[in-house]
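Problem 12. The chain below contains 147 residues. Write out its predicted structure in token notation.
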Amino acid sequence: MRISAKGEYAIKAVLDLSLRSGDGLVPIQDIAVRQAIPQRYLEHVLLALKRAGLLGSKRGASGGYHLTRPPEEISVGDVLRAVEGSQAPLEARRRTGGRNGDETYELSELWEEIGKAVSEVVDRVTFGDLAARAQARRSAVRAMYHI
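Solution.
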């Protein structure tokens, strides 16, 4: 499985917005700094997510981005498909000429099984889940260091 930089940045950006869900609009500059993503590249990523209906935005000095649905209703698979295409996160690798009984055919079946397994995971995990994990980890760190 290979997730492109665009896919990874999209996941980071949506997680950032999920952690700030309910806080109103989040400026793109803030997301870029917190997630260490070049702002110019992030603009393209967020535009793809907006076109897919996952984000809304407002221009101007008080503008920014927001999720169009609760984080619990947006899966990692939704985000990957929005920026990577409908075959994301893993395309089944098929070789031409594979026949039942030869190694190429069996490998083709294996790639398909792996693709289905990956899709099941990314479609099951929501940004609500990821935000809860991040908040729990932050709480544990604060408790450990008495912050």
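Discussion. The domain at 5-145 is CATH 1.10.10.10 (Arc Repressor Mutant, subunit A). Students who got a different answer should revisit the alignment rule from Section 12.3.
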